[in-house]
Amino acid sequence: MNKKILLFLVEGLSDKDALEPILSELVDSTKIHFEVLRCDLTASLDPEVRNLNMKQRITRVIKSFLENNHGIKKKHIEKIIFLSDSDGCYIDDSYIYFSENDISFRYEDDGIYTNRPNDAIDRNQRKSRNLNMIHSTAKVYALPIETYYFSCNLDHVLHNKRNLEQYLKEDYAFDFADKYENKEEQFIDFVNDSSLCLANNYADTWTIIQEDRNSLLRFTNLKIFFDNNFEFLKDEAKERVVQYQGG
């Protein structure tokens, strides 16, 4: 294998469909690979991970990826990029409201509505604890890792649709990727929009997303990915990033 890879871990197939075509055109010196987890690893109660902390959960995913992708060795992985929805996990419990008709969690600016508020509280405690562990970790399984969020979820950030029906997610994802086809550098403009960015460095973005109801609102720190991985970008992408770095 000639190139090392940036291994992106994402919750669902629509995440991959929306982002992989764009990011693959912006990165040059490494190969992008998206691994679809098909679950929210930060909140999962699956028996296989239930008693594992977040570092152990990610390690398990990496080992599984290597077992299922013959020809790719651990040494080929340049970095792990973990993408996660915030799902309002940092809000105070007082912003979780009982709503008889909401079987699942409904996210709004002012809180989470559900007929299972205790489940939402438990989920938030578990998810926030796991997110705090992984975003403050430099390495997992001896591999560098960075964690980026979409708030309150990817659909909210990319499409401004917070509670998008599952059956629509793929259509919206393909439409988003098509929007940036042959003009991928404009995606860097998108994630640098001041309405989406809370800060200009990794640590601060994680501090601010935990304040008040920010984890319910429309924010992402994905812009920091381009700053932190500048050396891997194509020249055109580097030029666009420099514009936002004041260079």
How many β-strand stretches? Answer: 9
Mean of residue pLDDT values: 96
**CA-CA gap between termini:** 35 Å
Structural class: alpha/beta
Domain count: the total is: 1
Q: Rough shape?
A: globular
Q: Helicity, in percent?
A: 40-55%
Poorly predicted regions: none
Count, helices: 9
Largest sheet: 6 strands, mixed
**Proportion of residues in β-strands:** 15-25%
Radius of gyration, taken over Cα atoms and rounded to an integer in Å: 18 Å
Element-by-element helix/strand order: EHEHEEEEHEEHHHHEHH
3D architecture notes:
With 247 residues, the protein is an alpha/beta fold. It has one domain. Helices cover 40% and strands 18% of the residues. It is built from nine helices and nine strands. The longest helix has 19 residues, at 117-135. It is globular and about 55 Å long. The model has no long low-confidence stretch (mean pLDDT 96).
Task: Quickly describe the structure.
40% of the residues lie in helices and 18% in strands. It is an alpha/beta fold and 247 residues long. β1 (5-10), α1 and β2 form a beta-alpha-beta unit.
